[in-house]
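Input sequence (132 aa), recorded before submission:
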Amino acid sequence: MADYGVASREDAIDFMEQYPGFGEMRSFTDALGAEEVAFTWRLMPPNTGGKGSYGHRHKDQEEVYFVVRGTVQFKLGDEVIEVGPRSAVRVPTDVFRSVHNDGPDDAEIVLVSVRLEDLSGETDTVPDFWPE
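Predicted structure, token format:
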């Protein structure tokens, strides 16, 4: 028998569950038993995301964001860019980032990075990173 994993949406931890109305952010990493890759799916309703919030960076995790549906805004350092569907953004470890959906419809993104066993102290944050 092959050693593979299959996980459904219900199997994945939803980090946004405690924030009703802000969509879903489901980590499939543990549900799949992934040993090397972190895989997260994010559903962003209109007018949700990072505006008016903090920015963050990962000390040891380069991230790739793939926009599946909708158009989202990325604040990467001091620059704001708009990214449409079927486009990807690579964010290196030294760049503070935040993502927001200003569009009229839901947006979906997929985040992929290397998996880390110990996440404590791995993330730096900046308050008021993207003022409204």
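Checked by second reader. The helical segments are 29-32.
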